[in-house]
Amino acid sequence: MKKNYVLVLIILSPVFAHAQFRFGLEGGINLSSVLPLSSKINTTIGDPGDYIYGDQNLQYEKDKGMTRFYVGALFKYKLTKVLKLNIGLGYSQKGWTKYSYNNNAMEANIYSNQYKINFLELSVSPEYGTPVGPGRAFISLGPFLAYGLNGTQNSTYAWLPGSTNYDHFPSHDTTFFSPFFKSGSKRFEFGLDMALGYEFSMGVFVKVAYDLTLKGVLYEEPIQRFSVFQFGAGYLFTFVRNKKK
Fold first, then answer.
1. Of 96, 120, 117, 123, nearest to 185 (Cα)?
2. What is the pTM (predicted TM-score) of this model?
3. Cα-based distances in Å from 77 to 16, 127, 200
């Protein structure tokens, strides 16, 4: 295996030796959600407090996305006039909230489960670009690998009027926090990243990206995956290696 890595580096070394190298920083927001979304039955679920005690044994579920952020470093190697290789390393926050409504005589409640998970993410993707106006438009597609650094699970039960537990709990709700990752939990995610953007000649760029987790850390049944839209901006510095005089 090591021999294969060395062989690849030897083959690529002439390419990178004469490549234009750019390094940059970027950041933005993550519009994070999960797929598939939980189904709802007979009603639309909102925030806790929207319901009163009613028909027996009805249950509903709904997932709600969350806005978080990401920051990172970006490395670009210019391979040809139109093709670049992107390598990104960043800190990315993801999360969502799951609401459920359980309406039975004893435990009628609105249950919200808020997940916030932080990842260290590595991405590698080829990028195609073409000149447009004072800069260039680009599109990229490639895999990413993420490692779960830490996370929290914030759970709240809000008991509904008319239920037995509503009378037993003076505050009518219960909240508890717990770490998302426990001993033996999966921490790696793998997925695909696609980005569209525009890079100005002075180095500033903006982009819209979509990350879809193919195999991840979530353990809900059925298994859900993160689906994240990113809106970001950054700045690139240019370095030229072995430039001919």
1. 117
2. 0.75
3. 7, 10, 17
- Asked if residue 212 belongs to a domain, the reply is yes
Can you read off the two tokens belonging to residue 27? 């950041």
Residue 161 lies in a domain: yes
245 residues of the chain, pLDDT tens digit each: 455 545 544 444 554 455 578 899 999 999 999 887 665 544 444 444 444 334 444 566 778 899 999 999 999 998 998 999 999 999 999 998 887 766 655 555 667 788 899 999 999 999 999 999 999 999 999 999 999 998 888 887 766 665 555 565 555 455 665 777 776 678 899 999 999 999 999 999 999 999 999 988 776 656 788 999 999 999 999 876 555 54
How many domains would you assign to the chain?
1
Q: Domain range spanning residue 235? A: 2-240
Q: Is residue 245 part of a domain?
A: no
